Amino acid sequence: MISGYTQHGSGLVALKCFEKIPVGLVLNTVIYSCVLKACGSIGPLVEGRLVYDEILRSKLELDVGMGNHLVEMYVKCRSLEEAIRMLASWPKRDIVSWGILIAGFAECKNVPGALQLLEKMFQQNGLKPDRVIFMSLFQACSNTETAEQGKIVHDLMIRSGLNLDIMVGSTHVDMYAKSENLDEACNLHKTLPDRDVRSWAILISGYSQHDCPHLALDCFERMLKDGIEPDSHVFSCTLKSCAIATALQNGRLLHIQIIKHGLKIDAIVGGSLVDMYAKCGNLVDGWDTLNTIHPQDVVSWNALISGYAQEGRVYEALKCFETGYTQQGHDHGALNCFKQIENEGLSNKFMIKFGAETS
Fold it and tell me: 316: how many CB neighbours lie within 10 A of its CB?
C-alpha cells in the first residue's frame, strides 16, 4: 500500500500508512525506500530524519540502493549539506549516488558546488561522470551568468572521455544557446551525430530568442535539407522569427508547409501564426487564422488585438477585444494594447466597461 500511494503521488497518505505499522514489526528495505521517496515528494524533512534514524537502528544491510534513496530524500527536501554528510558517511556509494547529489546542486543553480562535487568524484573516488550528470550540469549553466562555468563542464566532459551522443549534445547546444553564445551553439550542433528535430529546434529557438531571426530562418532551411521533418515546436519558433523580421512571405510559406504536414492548428502553432500575421501587418489572414484555431486561447486574441492597435484600427481592435472577452474572459495583456491607441476617448469607454485601469 505504501508503495502504491508513493507511486501515484500520494506521499502524505503513504506516510500516514507507515505510521500505522505496529511497533516491533520487522520492516524491509523496500518499505523504507518507499517511505523515503514519500518524504522527498512532499518535503517533510523532520519525518525523513526520523526514518533515517530508524534505518540506522535496524539490522538492515546499508547497501548502495538504500543510501541513494536517503541522498535523494535530502536533495528533494533541499537539504544539500545533509545530503553531502549522508553520502560521506554511507559505507557504499556509486555513480548514481554522486549523480543524485550533483543534480540536486545543479537544480538549485549552485553550479560551483556541483563542480566541486564533480571534481571530488572524478579525482578522489576514481569514478567517471556519466551522461546524466553532464546533462544536469549543462542545464544548470544555461544562462549568461554561468557561461564560463559551462565551458568548465565542457572541458571536464572531454577529460572524462564521454562520447557526445545526441541527448548530451542537444543539452550542450541548449546551454550555449540560452547563454547567448550562438556561434558556439552552431559549431557544436554541426558536430552532433544524427542530428534530430529536437537539436534543430533548440538552435532555431536560440536564434529567435536572441533577435537573430534571419539566422533562425537559415537554420530552418538547413534542417529541411538535412531531411528532418519539422514539428509543431520548430514551426512555432520559426514563425516567431518571421514575426520579428516582418518576413511575411517566409511566414506564408511556413503556413503552407504546416498544412502540407497535416499538423493541427492548435493554440501553440495557431497563436504563432496569428502573431506573425499581426506583426507583419496582414490582419486579414491573422483573423482568418484565428478562426481556425481549436482550441483558441487568450494569447492568440491578444496578438490580433495588438496588431489592430499598432495599425491604429481602433474599431476593429475594440470589436476583436469584445469578442475575445466574451469567449476567453478578462486579460490585462489585451487591455494594455489600447494604451497604444491615440483615440483615448473611445478606448477608455471599453477599458472602463471591462474593469481595466486607464491611468
Answer: 17
